[in-house]
Amino acid sequence: MNTEKDFSPLTPNIVRALNDKLYEKRKVAALEIEKLVREFVAQSNSTQIRHVIQTLASEFALSQHPHSRKGGLIGLAACSIALGKDSGLYLKELIEPVLTCFNDSDSRLRYYACEALYNIVKVARGAVLPHFNLLFDGLSKLAADPDPNVKSGSELLDRLLKDIVTESNKFDLVAFVPLLRERIYSNNQYARQFIISWILVLESVPDIHLLDYLPEILDGLFQILGDNSKEIRRMCEMVLGEFLKEIKKTPSSVKFAEMANILVIHCQVADETKMTNDLIQLTSMTWMREFIQLSGRVLLPYSSGILTAVLPCLSYDDRKKSTKEAASACNHSLMKLITPEDDEEEEEEEEGDKTATGSPPHGDRPKAEGDSNDLLNASQESVALSNISFFTQTSADQPHVSLNLDGIVQVLDRHLHDSSTGMMTRIAVLKWLYHLYIKTPRKMFRHTDSLFPMLLKTLSDESDEVILKDLEVLAEIASSPAGQTGDLSGSCDGAEHRLELTVPATAAGAKPGHHTPGGGSRAADSSPSTPSMNSYFYKFMINLLKRFSLERKLLENRGAFIIRQLCLLLHAENIFHSMADILLKEEDLKFASTMVQTLNTILLTSAELFQLRNQLKDLHTQESCALFCCLYRSWCHNPVATVSLCFLTQNYRHAYDLIQKFGGLEVSVDFLMEVDKLVQLIESPIFTYLRLQLLDVENNPYLIKALYGLLMLLPQSQAFQLLSHRLRCVPNPELMRTVDESTYMESKQQAAAKRPSHAPMDYRELLEHFDRVQSKHLEVRHQRSGRATDLSDRKLM
């Protein structure tokens, strides 16, 4: 530095001392400056004061010479001390050169800069708050300083500044938040610790409402929560905990919607190998749970994004039990937000459009909200999570909160298609679909055609619980009045497949809240076990049988289970009536035979079919006779099943006639095994009434003949011995008479009169139908045998 230059009002001695390398000499110079400035203050000579400060700043603090810079710093501190309460008038000139020295490469000089700024701030106190952003920016850099002395000095300055902010009511939070939002994305641990400590302080000041700006910093807080330092994570948890407590106290003032997507992002783990990610996910899921419960329908437009985050967590194991429980609570709370009114919104809109335009409501329908799945424009400094998907509110400018059903269905469908989806997640997805079909049936039936194939495929799931939920959804689709389209062209394979399903008015499972298609809206708590079927019912039956045909293991392992559950969820008579009607036209005769055998076993053994068995046991109505004829025509694909159906319906003569025709059939091992099973069934409780009828020999001769016919078909086996022993127990009719002949004949006639008169049935035509079906089976077997022979001959050649 040129010592001959004029630095007045600084004396040459002061200038030399400020440039000296010894601290003691610079300190003496500082005391002289303090004395000089005090004189100017006493004279109210602000011009000279400002000149001294500018000289110290430009000629010393910003000098190229390190000792001069040190002298300038101590001189500026001395000026501030001398100014006292008036230092606030010159803070900009005092602070800026000192902050510039924070970036100096010399650690000693950075330490002196901390010391100088500490003295300036200590004197000025609350007057420094207008310059808070500059001070905060400088301190945030020193917080990560590698030199421990510098860091220690910055911590002292930091504590002083926090005390000033805490005791003041003039802190400008609006001006500070942009800087805080910028600095919160720092990756340096010390800088993060510095940021968290300041947020804790600001949150503790009653007059500073940092919660209003939480959407600006929440993403950064979750970033810090993933820090490798345990202490920083603990501090960040504390900050988030304080915010959550305040949110619970004042939910009406919280900007839930602005933070929804931030939580959605962090609820989804990008890297499950990092333990810190588990903490982020658990914390964000806990926040999401509280948000849904506190905000109500405000978060409904974000449902698709929330489900994207929540559903995978439901399949977590016990290692993430807390996250799983929080996700489950989120899922249940979100589901409760959807009400039947969400289905009525669209109806009101359509009626309004129709009134305004005079056109049908389905003509030019506005694009659905869910058609635009815009992603959140997150901060550029936020960590990019490429495998995270989430959705934004498409109608944020509208005060009315509406349901984005398209987006929800898209998420649910994606999870169903994903083979890696866990069992509990699949169950939750199906519960959601069922809930949506109950609450918003009209909107949901738009998506039925796209959902239907996957719902059918889900029947092959390994979990029984998944299949049960899947059947509930399919049953609701098949029975909901909203699915009635008026024609079955889209539900069946052709016009010849049309089937009128008649349902008794007192059918079991029917509920008064479940109206007919034209009878108004359905009650919110209705069960899918209603007997009223829509146009999707027959489509369901056709596709279910096709699936059984293509996946024989599904039929073998789960076929009976699926059909029995459907009989509980829907009306058993309709299930059997429709399947019989479809199987009547089945071209794969082997499958038809197998399917009839399965249905017959279910009919005869399942507790769920008790009512249907009773209906068939006494054919005393036109409806029961029609059902018998429908089942019979399909049951003809399997001779033994046909005989068992005749036994069930007490058509013993017809059963005998059928058994007489068995001599012309191909008696295979499978055939004999079916006869064996029928004998076992005859000994079961289902056929108790049949065994008791053996006591009335004279009125049931064809029953005995039919049983003897079965006996003659069987080889000498255990079943043969069982049936033979039963027939040996049949009493002599003469021994059963306990009254005289005339009285016996009279009681016989009276008993015959009391027996229900069957509706007229053409049993000859039924036998002819049996012959035709068996001829087809024989022809198919011959064709297969011929092809097998040709193939064998070719191999020999």
Automatic annotation (TrEMBL):
GO terms for cellular component: endosome membrane; PAS complex. Pfam families: Vac14_Fab1_bd, Vac14_Fig4_bd. Residues 333-374, 508-530 are annotated as: Disordered. Keywords: Endoplasmic reticulum, Endosome, Membrane, Microsome, Repeat. Residues 340-352 have a biased composition (Acidic residues). Residues 552-730 form the Vacuolar protein 14 C-terminal Fig4-binding domain. GO terms for biological process: phosphatidylinositol biosynthetic process. InterPro entries: ARM-like (IPR011989), ARM-type_fold (IPR016024), Vac14 (IPR026825), VAC14_Fig4p-bd (IPR021841). It is found in: Endosome membrane; Microsome membrane. Scaffold protein component of the PI(3,5)P2 regulatory complex which regulates both the synthesis and turnover of phosphatidylinositol 3,5-bisphosphate (PtdIns(3,5)P2). Pentamerizes into a star-shaped structure and nucleates the assembly of the complex. The pentamer binds a single copy each of PIKFYVE and FIG4 and coordinates both PIKfyve kinase activity and FIG4 phosphatase activity, being required to maintain normal levels of phosphatidylinositol 3-phosphate (PtdIns(3)P) and phosphatidylinositol 5-phosphate (PtdIns(5)P). Belongs to the VAC14 family. Forms pentamers. Component of the PI(3,5)P2 regulatory complex/PAS complex, at least composed of PIKFYVE, FIG4 and VAC14. VAC14 nucleates the assembly of the complex and serves as a scaffold by pentamerizing into a star-shaped structure, which can bind a single copy each of PIKFYVE and FIG4 and coordinates their activities. Interacts with NOS1. This is Protein VAC14 homolog. It comes from Merluccius polli.
